[in-house]
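Good morning C.,

I know you're traveling, so I'll keep this short. The sequence:
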Amino acid sequence: MTDPHHLPDTELVEHKGYQIRLSPSGPEWLAFVALPRQRPTLIMAPDRAAALAKAYEWIDLQLASDKKPG
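The tokens, ready to paste straight into the viewer:
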């Protein structure tokens, strides 16, 4: 029986001030992406490399939209 308090292996990566927490979940990988002290965005992908690539792309889009004049 597994310990319900044990979290799966999670990897923390930082990119341009954002934190990316990568975690395997069954056949998929999850990436939780957020600035410190903000609610994360969830990204799902079929493998770790794809999850990380999608997270980087999402962060770059957020930063680009912040720079556009409103």
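Safe travels,
E.
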